[in-house]
């Protein structure tokens, strides 16, 4: 399917879904721009996020009467083709359409471009301010040296996740050699730096036998990388790869016969779980805010409803649910959709997520603090599977309030 045809198909699908769910497009809707890939190599990941936002907004806000006396949330898809330049074009489009809320998550390179542009725009245009709700871009810089009042992150950052992963690695005395591989951009570099830092602190005896980056979204055959991993004698692999790059790397590792646990940030869903299948059992571990198995009753019911509408997709980023719920709560608390008032209500907010666990939006840097789980790929005790494969993620370890004690260099400047 060509890119143009695919985008048209996605748009038609979204509109059709909206007609069935009863979504309205009234002038007084609160419009939220979804700026993420809906074409190109990462379209599958982007579409999953878009469908989750649509379903969460419809079922958790609109079907319950909306916010602020009946105003509905409307998710507006804007394809950025995973390009920072295209993302800025879509941001200008959102501004021209009077949209005050942006959601984005795929690629920290894109997030860095957006947060800079939004911060500058808001300084220059106090009557057109925008809030950036980051649901998945985890470069630590975004809530450290590049933090700003308009950016909120609803996912654990790369350092928080690596801190949790390396706790597990440090406890395994059979791991003596580790190979680090990732995508060559800000997030991949952050993952590699965090791995070296935390392994060095917790298990200085572990040897880093490989630490390399590959072009993001451009590698068609990961066999040469998998061959190097195998020949290194690594006892474990760490990767932050996501989307098509995780599928490609995972397939190559499986085919190369690498006999080592693989510690990942995004090693499940979007075809990844199906790719590993039986060979991923007790091998793939994913650090995640979600508790897929065992699921809470609320999450299980929400997932079943989502799958009825989207049988070909997984609810693989449940933090999106919290993003929508916390935004709605902030608007109700503020009594308005004015961005300054909503941002003020969001920072410092305590909330109970779909798993019944407490989360906190830290006011000092707008980094969410929540429990983080280490999950393992398995076919045992699975109630919520991935890729309709019969395999899924089972929680092995939970880190309570992960990252709570990690320092931040953020010097938050608030509007006067």
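-> sequence recovered:
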């Amino acid at each position: 399917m060509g890119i143009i045809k695919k985008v048209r198909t996605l748009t038609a699908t979204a509109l059709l879904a909206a007609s069935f769910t009863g979504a309205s497009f009234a002038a007084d809707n609160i419009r939220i721009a979804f700026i993420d890939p809906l074409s190109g190599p990462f379209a599958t990941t982007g579409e999953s996020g878009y469908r989750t936002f649509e379903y969460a907004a419809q079922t958790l806000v609109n079907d319950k009467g909306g916010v602020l006396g009946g105003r509905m949330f409307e998710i507006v898809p804007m394809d950025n083709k995973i390009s920072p330049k295209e993302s800025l074009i879509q941001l200008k489009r959102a501004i021209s359409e009077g949209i005050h809320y942006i959601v984005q998550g795929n690629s920290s390179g894109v997030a860095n471009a957006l947060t800079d542009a939004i911060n500058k725009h808001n300084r220059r245009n106090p009557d057109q301010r925008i809030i950036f709700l980051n649901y998945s871009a985890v470069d630590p810089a975004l809530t450290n040296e590049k933090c700003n009042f308009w950016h909120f992150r609803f996912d654990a950052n790369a350092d928080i996740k690596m801190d949790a992963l390396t706790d597990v690695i440090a406890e395994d005395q059979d791991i003596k050699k580790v190979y680090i591989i990732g995508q060559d951009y800000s997030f991949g570099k952050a993952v590699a730096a965090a791995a070296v830092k935390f392994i060095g602190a917790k298990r200085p005896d572990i040897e880093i036998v490989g630490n390399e980056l590959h072009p993001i979204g451009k590698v068609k055959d990961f066999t040469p990388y998998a061959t190097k991993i195998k020949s290194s004698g690594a006892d474990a692999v760490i990767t932050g790869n996501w989307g098509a790059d995780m599928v490609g790397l995972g397939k190559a590792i499986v085919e190369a016969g690498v006999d080592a646990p693989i510690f990942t940030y995004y090693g499940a869903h979007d075809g990844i779980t199906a790719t590993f299948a039986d060979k991923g059992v007790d091998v793939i571990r994913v650090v995640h805010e979600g508790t897929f198995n065992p699921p809470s009753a609320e999450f299980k019911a929400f997932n079943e409803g989502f799958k009825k509408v989207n049988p070909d997709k997984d609810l693989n980023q449940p933090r999106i649910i919290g993003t929508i719920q916390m935004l709605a709560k902030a608007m109700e608390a503020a009594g308005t959709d004015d961005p300054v008032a909503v941002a003020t209500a969001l920072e410092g907010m305590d909330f109970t997520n779909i798993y019944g666990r407490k989360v906190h939006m830290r006011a000092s840097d707008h980094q969410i603090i929540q429990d983080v789980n280490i999950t393992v790929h398995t076919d045992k005790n699975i109630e919520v599977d991935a890729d309709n494969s019969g395999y899924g993620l089972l929680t092995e370890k939970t880190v309570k309030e992960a990252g709570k004690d990690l320092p931040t260099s953020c010097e938050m400047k608030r509007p006067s």
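The chain has two domains: 3-156+297-370, 159-292+371-402.
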